[in-house]
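To whoever picks this up:

The parser on our side crashed when reading a file containing two proteins. I've narrowed it down to the boundary between the first structure block and the second sequence. Both blocks are reproduced below exactly, byte for byte. First block:
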Amino acid sequence: MTHNRLFLSTAAALAIGAALALGVSSGTLLSLLTQATIYAVFALGVGLLLRQNGMVSFGHALFFGSSGYIVAILLQLKAVPAEAAIVIAVLGLSAFAFLIGLVIVRVPGVAFGMLTLAVGQMAYLTASRSRGLTGGADGMSVEWPSTLFGLQTSLLFSPAGMLMLSWSVLVLTLLAIALLLRTRFGAITEAARDNEERARFIGIRTLMPQAALYALSAGVTSLAGVLAALNTGFISPESLHWSLSGVALMMVVVGGTRALWGPALGAAVYFLAKDVLGDHAQHWMAIFGTALIVVIVFAPEGLSGILMRLVSSRAKAAGGAAPQTPVAVRTAH
């Protein structure tokens, strides 16, 4: 996809988000779409790490929940303005992820996943037991000011406003990542993912790019955590639990990582299934888990891979059919 098509696709996606926010009148549906969009950003961070580094993280809930806690604590202490608190949370967690990434990205396979799980659970236990700072298991409210980035928070907190904000963050984040992966950084991380030993042999230093990609993945997930804190006005230790990372991984598997937008599609399917099956089945997770197994076995590239394959096959069929017409005409004559 050329840069022009990429920007046109971004503009079209933003227009779709505006149409949804303005056209949907049901507050319940708007709330569901907002949650799906926020978790799409979360899944995008997890999927980016899997797509470019080939690494599975069970601890990304650390960044999702910690960003909300950092903002809530800074606002409670009145240490900095809300805008600065958001920037500090996202950049601070990205820097923290880079530092620990310099260590844990050296560990391959399952051990990497277990290390991320251990670090994440440490944060969960700390938040659960620090009642004086985080409210402990009861959580804490986020005291947002009346204005944020020059906008009235009452407008942002409306169902349509939150959907538009979350959708815009998702689309613009996808654009930024797509542009970044077209640079040398994207090529280096792909080379390290496919064959790290060969990449090192030809002179590529893989540690720093891999740690930087882990930090970028954490930063994207932190954005989702800030959006979740905006949406609910509340943060609790449950947002740090490893099971939330597991949910994000399920979204990634369902959506696939062949396309950058695959994890976002998986988030939409997950919340749609949760809403539909939850009304008709008490154990909807068992049904969704069965569907997940089917996807893994018969479509390991996920739904995005299936869609891309269908589009590619149709394009090839259309391109191959065009030159046959003159041959048929000549034969008839």
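<<boundary where parser fails>>
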Amino acid sequence: MRLRLLTLSLISAMTMTACASNVSSQSNLEASKASEPARLQQSEQISKPLPKVDPTTKAERTGLAERADVQAFITKTSREKNLDAKWMTDVLNHTKLQPKIVEAMNRPAEGTMNWGKYRPIFMTDKRINDGIKFYNQYESDFIRAEEVYGVDRFVIAAIIGVETGYGQNRGSWKVVDALSTLAFDYPRRAAFFSGELAAFFQILNENGGDPFSYKGSYAGAMGYPQFMPSSYLAYAVDFDGDGKRDLWNNPVDAIGSVGNYLMKAGWVRGAKIAEQVSVSTSNNAYQALKQTGRLTPPKETVAQLKNAGIITNADPSAKVTLFEFEVTSSPKVDEWWIGYRNFYAITRYNSSKLYALAVFQVSEAIKKGVR
């Protein structure tokens, strides 16, 4: 499944970076379920004026809400989230299912993406130069985010850069269409996306506006940082104090929200992220200690890795994870890296180790360019 998610991310990154990690950021979504929704007062939701369908969007009536499964979703969600069922019905009756989204989700993996292929997608002169400009434009907000949340401000910038090219590609799908398609016409992940659709209705109720004006990726990820709806509810913040959490049009809110996300993912203020290491030619015991399978917090010490053949000057007592990154398969060329707790925090945003290393390297390049 991870390979499929990574492949879908890369397809999008080459054409529209807004989707770069939208599908694969589902680790991000799972993590959000453990956090209480920020700034959301459910008792006040139903008393707000409900956002109406704007006729200027020309959303034709589709009758989607007449389906039995959609009716069941409305009944359940309106009751559990304290939302108006008639309003939800009206929105869903103007929602259009998009078969192309299902096709994209079902697209078979096209080979294995290694570091040698992945890195050039994100480590480009344009992305670095745009990152430097973006950072300089909002420098005071980045500095404040680092002070408030303890997260490296250049990592925050890099994540927004990897996700959407600093907001240049935020997605063109109507979020309600995308999430409804996956909730009602994609059985394999229906439960997951039904939860995201329910969360999106909470966002609509909180923010107001035309439900069909909200745009995102084909997987329903939204705004500058490509948060899924459940992550928005859990981590999005009103960082500029205007009374609204706006990740679609407000880069300042996005900066604060990414910082808040990584803080809650366990970021350690001022700590290291990752370092490249060498391997011994005579002791290959390190092979048994490299990361495989699901990513977990660091558990081996540098001293243990050194005894297994890793060559590094890192603090022997530090806990890290050993990663092998394939550059080429023939001839076999690898890079070896150790990831600290903050590297793991980045993988809570997107579960790919390739993503995390790309974010780290983009952040370092932006930092070098700014200074």
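After patching the parser it read the second block fine. Strands lie at 173-174, 215-216, 274-279, 300-301, 310-311, 319-329, 332-339. The mean pLDDT is 88.
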